[in-house]
Design goal:
Blueprint: H1 23-39, H2 44-50, H3 56-66, E1 74-75, E2 78-79, H4 83-96, H5 98-118, H6 121-132, E3 138-141, E4 157-161, E5 164-175, E6 182-189, E7 192-199, E8 205-209, E9 221-232, H7 244-278, E10 280-281, E11 284-285, H8 290-318, H9 324-349, H10 360-372, H11 377-389
Parallel strand pairs: 3-6
Antiparallel strand pairs: 1-2, 4-5, 5-9, 6-7, 8-9, 10-11
Helix pairs in contact: 1-4, 4-5, 4-7, 5-6, 5-7, 7-8, 7-9, 7-10, 8-9, 9-10, 9-11
Length: 395
């Protein structure tokens, strides 16, 4: 290719990653980007400051109409999109706010995915269509007050009573908890750990919102209390026994985070880039100084490497070749680098970087939660360490 035939350098796509997408991919991306620009960005700073999203149920129905809920699942009203298209949607949603992407991830990649993969046909037909439409919101109960990274030690238990199951226990840090019409709850049984599909109007079920959060403030986070909740035999997920069930759901959700974190990073980078070309100090734009350019260059390198990694993992998922260790690779790298991009962007914006007039501090505080949930950075390091050495350092 001659120099004259080379495409124009795009500061927002320096590697030309848009070439990796086909027309359907671009259509998905642009649809979600437009929706987020119209329905989230004008309001999200206020939602974050107030710590609530008043119209969250309406947003869920709109996301359902877009096909964004349970997006890569097939049948029962789900869109049947590719893994890459789902990833692009996560990136665009988190570029608006991590809380909105969390709503979608928990709905589709945790609650719906568990029912779709492990549920009976009766459970699928009952729950998946209204969940895909956003008419019913779901949550996923695994983490407990005393057991986060070690779910095998969970205390929530289910016992048989005649033909019924009776669940007792507590789950915490549950996204969508008090919004949910259905909860997928994991509990100990005499047979091993099992999943249960729990209607939230069942007697003995309660959800209490967690307040005073300084992260994911545009997201509902709750504690679930199950006090002798009685369920029929058919409420148990028949397709899996043991930790393999919830961990496979977490892997599916982590995949979305690999993309989503780069959305938050992109929003911060673009904010810093625009600011650097318009903010003047010492008689010229601060983007003309070497230290600022070095920061922008380093951020661009890590941002687009992260997007390229997400694309690679998405293609592997679409080919049925993606391993859990590779998802850990992606989450560890992309969330860590997204946080660094947010922090560096904040330094370019100076004091303005802490203002909600700009997205940077909001994304940075949100990513502190993303760093921890769906597996802490340390746990993903140990997953990779075991894969690399063959030695288990967890115990």
């Amino acid at each position: 290719m001659t120099a004259s035939a080379a495409p124009r350098f795009d500061p927002l796509d320096p590697l030309g990653l848009d070439d990796l997408l086909d027309d359907d991919d671009r259509a998905v991306r642009e649809t979600v980007r437009r929706w987020a620009a119209d329905r989230v960005l004008p309001h999200v700073a206020r939602w974050y400051e107030d710590g609530q999203v008043p119209e969250v149920r309406e947003l869920a129905r709109e996301l359902g109409a877009l096909g964004a809920l349970g997006m890569p699942l097939h049948g029962h009203g789900c869109a049947g999109a590719t893994a890459v298209q789902y990833g692009l949607a996560c990136l665009e949603l988190e570029a608006a706010d991590s809380g909105i992407r969390s709503l979608v991830s928990v709905q589709g990649s945790l609650a719906m995915y568990a029912i779709h993969r492990y549920g009976s046909e009766e459970l699928k037909e009952r729950w998946l269509p209204p969940m895909a439409a956003g008419e019913t919101i779901g949550c996923f109960g695994l983490t407990e007050p005393d057991h986060g990274s070690d779910p095998a030690a969970m205390r929530t238990h289910a016992r048989r009573d005649g033909s019924d199951w009776v669940l007792t226990g507590r789950k915490t840090w549950i996204t969508n908890g008090s919004l949910a019409g259905v909860a997928v709850v994991w509990a100990r049984t005499d047979e091993g750990i099992r999943g249960f599909v729990v209607p939230t109007d069942a007697p003995g079920f309660a959800a209490h919102d967690i307040h005073h959060k300084w992260s994911l403030r545009a997201s509902v986070t709750s504690e679930l209390v199950l006090d002798e909740v009685r369920l029929p035999e058919g409420a148990a997920l028949p397709g899996v026994v043991g930790l393999r069930g919830p961990l496979s759901c977490l892997s599916h959700a982590r995949y979305g985070i690999v993309w989503g974190a780069m959305g938050a990073a992109r929003a911060c980078f673009e904010s810093a880039l625009e600011y650097a070309t318009t903010r003047e100090q010492f008689g010229r734009p601060i983007g003309g100084f070497q230290l600022t350019q070095a920061k922008l260059a380093d951020m661009a390198v890590e941002l687009h490497k992260g997007v390229l990694l997400a694309h690679h993992l998405g293609r592997r998922m679409d080919a049925g070749r993606l391993r859990p260790e590779q998802i850990s690779f992606g989450k560890l790298n992309n969330v860590r680098e997204a946080l660094e991009i947010c922090r560096t962007s904040r330094t370019i914006l100076g004091a303005n970087g802490i203002s909600l007039e700009y997205p940077v501090m909001r994304h940075a505080t949100n990513l502190e939660s993303v760093l921890t949930y769906e597996g802490t950075a340390e746990m993903h390091q140990l997953v990779l360490g075991k894969a690399l050495t063959g030695l288990d350092a967890f115990r």
